[in-house]
Amino acid sequence: MYRTPICLLFLWALVSPAQDPKPNPPAAQSHPDFSGTWEVVEPQRTFPGSENRTASYRRYSDAETDQIDHAEPVLAITPRIGHVDVVYTLFCRTDGKGPQGPYASRQTRCDGHWEGRNYVFQTSSPHGGAALSTTTLSLSDDGKRMTKVVRTSGPNGTTEQTLIFEKVSAARGGIAIGDTIERVKYQWGEPEKAIEEGRQTILIYGDFDNVFIDGKMVDGAGTPLRDKPPVYPDNIAIGQTRDQVVKVYGQPTKTIQRNGKEIDFYGSLAVGYSGGNLVYISATGQTKDEILAVFGQPTRTVEWKGKEFGFYPFMTATYFNNKLITIGPSSY
Q1: Rounded CA separation 72/33 (Å)
Q2: Are residues 287 and 253 in the same domain?
Q3: What is the mean pLDDT of the chain?
Q4: Scanning 102, 248, 272, 301, which has the fewest C-beta atoms within 10 Å of its C-beta?
């Protein structure tokens, strides 16, 4: 009688299935994708000390639109709230790495984690410490509604705000320094007005201005927090030398000569020297005449929706009600 060689029996034992297999481990739970543009439809807020008292907000919350770009381990969320002229992007991470990039030390830290199908993130200062707020995101089964619950602790107790959003677009995320005009239009649609001045383009969306040089964004309402110039300390004074100022602010991003003065730019801040000593510091709220006294007449001015744009070969100054609101170099 033919006998199966022992070596073949051994090989069969290695490759054949076990007689009493153990069940496979359950598949990892899938997590929803929050990407898209979301518009609030139901705002509510619980006030400190009154757990049962809620109120609908019709000034800011009902105008909130969140743009989210979600690709694990990063969820980038850009809220636009009411008519406030501030837009920022939070970069939340589930890998615990914290802020990334050259401006990490100035970013708000945002740590995310999953609780089932809910995405929970906490924000804190770049240097650690107690959480500033805790936010929970959840999606409806059909993916058309998102609920955002924000809990913020303060000296008077905890405030809880619940917002219900509807998905209005598949557009993902916010806009950032370096983005092209085409990408901004894809995210925000066609602008109400576009101003062309040499290499510079300004796209205007209501109260929001986005500035481009050679087709790439250099400043604007959509600038993420990590790419904004730092808030400079108010510990320089008229009469100080340039070396003293540089010790506080660091090296400027651009330097120009104008009307016998040396002007250094730090993001949207301008400081001017005469004879090596500080004689001028730009600040929002300065009058148009104060700016003209330093920089002279612009080569062109454009008025739009109550704002006036003064264009120079090296700089743009923007005014509202005759007061400066932004100033900065217009070409690099």
Answers
A1: 9
A2: yes
A3: 75
A4: 102
Contact 266, 278 (CB under 8 A): no
Q: Is 23 among the domain residues?
A: no
Burial 141-151 (b: 16+ CB within 10 A, else e): eeeebbebbbb
Give the helix, strand, coil percentages of the chain, each rounded to 5. 15, 45, 40
Domain of 275 in residue numbering reads as 230-332
Location of structure tokens 């005014």: 319
List, in sequence order, every residue forming a beta bridge with 175; answer none if it has no partner.
none
> Number of folded domains in the chain?
3
| Domain limit, last residue, from 183, 202, 228 | 228
**Among 109, 153, 149, 104, which Cα is nearest to 128's?**
109
Give the distance from CA 278 to its chain's centroid. Answer: 33
Evaluate whether 92 touches 135 at the Cβ level (below 8 Å).
no
Q: In what order do the strands lie in the sheet with 315-320?
A: 300-304, 307-311, 315-320, 323-329
Sign of CA dihedral 92, 96, 97, 98: positive
Structure tokens at 59: 């000034």
Q: Looking at this protein, which amino acid is placed at residue 42?
A: E
Do residues 41 and 155 share a domain? yes
Residue 179 in tokens: 């983005």
- 17-42 pLDDT, tens digit per residue, is 334 444 444 444 589 999 888 888 87
Q: What is the DSSP string of 160-212?
A: EEEEEEEEEE---S---TT-BHHHHHHHH-S-SEEEEETTEEEEEETTEEEEE
Structural contact between residues 198 and 214, judged by C-beta atoms closer than 8 angstroms: no
42 and 136 assigned to the same domain: yes
Distance of alpha carbon 238 from alpha carbon 319, whole angstroms:
24
Q: Are residues 46 and 148 in the same domain?
A: yes
Instruction: Report the candidate in 163, 86, 150 with the shortest Cα–Cα distance to residue 122.
Output: 150
pLDDT digits (tens, 9 = 90+) for 137-174: 999 999 999 999 999 877 777 888 899 999 887 766 56
Residues 40 and 126 in one domain: yes
196 and 101, same structural domain?
Answer: no
